[in-house]
Amino acid sequence: MNLCSARGRRGCLTSGVITLDGLTKVFPAPGGGDPVVALDGIDLHLEPGRIHGIVGRSGAGKSTLIRCLTGLEKPTSGRVEVDGTDVAALEGRALRAARRNIGMVFQHANLLDSRTAAQNIAHPLEIAGVPRAERERRVAELVELVGLGGREHNHPAQLSGGQIQRVGIARGLAAEPKVLLCDEPTSALDGSTTRQILRLLGDLRERLGITVVIITHEMAVVREVCDTVTLLQDGRITQTGDLLDVAADPHGPLSSELIPLPPAPTGIDALVVNCDYGDSERFRTTEDLIRLAEEYEAEATLVAGTIETIGGRQVGRVQLALRNRSGVAISAEGLAAFLAELEAAGVAAKEVTA
User: Fold this and answer.
1) Which one of 77, 228, 246, 250 has the fewest beta carbons within 10 angstroms of its own beta carbon?
2) What angle is formed at CA 60 by the lines to CA 59 and CA 61, rounded to 5 degrees?
3) Which percentage of the chain shows pLDDT scores above 70?
4) Residue 12 confidence (pLDDT)
């Protein structure tokens, strides 16, 4: 199999760069009201051969961003460069040629019910005028690549949700794109199937060196497979960076969503403190926090917490119940000193108030 025949398997890593420079999209309001700013000066550089997550709530601008990336929407201003080509400046045949470097995977694969899996995968190749023999060779490669062997002659009604999404991924890869854009690719799938699809996307990145961009609202997807993450809010980037750096930044807007803290048990006769310790060189584990509490004549008990291993490093958000040696709550002076030392060492810590 030679899915990167023109570029070499790991040679694909030299292509697939995405750069957004001052990307702005303004829609006129219906009825002559104030215009709607969907994207407000987006500056973003995505390195090739990595998996990038773009997250944000409904209305943040994710859908508009992906339409600008594919050239389906013209920005009001700014540049949208994919592999060095400003997609926003292209029209007609040149735009269609540029789009062949961008594969798309949708939340719902939108397969043609009258076609088999193989025929659905071949559909974009037919539109591009690829000869039949070449189409059949390419489809056979893709069926093997996405794990659909034995199912290629089934129609969509005969496939599971995960298999349908695998067809969608194979179809997105049909033209050997340098970038694969995935718009909520797992939100319609159950947990087990979601993990399978994410493993497949990770494997495709490793085997093909392709750049993958996942638009999602599911933080579990970001934690599972992404190398970098960008948060969109009201059409602006409010945080972006390597996943570990973002998750370990206790003061950033994404940390609490990537590493959510479960509710603490009620009725605790102690002082409760929240601690985010992912960005600290001194405090790497919950045990480190408990040992520090002992230095302030307090006993610390873990009552709630979420700990994830990202990039080989523990990132955690925990709640500790603090009591003094007599079993009552730690003094105000002891608490202030304890929190001050944590903050000085890069741990975001604060008392939980009722």
Assistant:
1) 77
2) 90
3) 94
4) 44
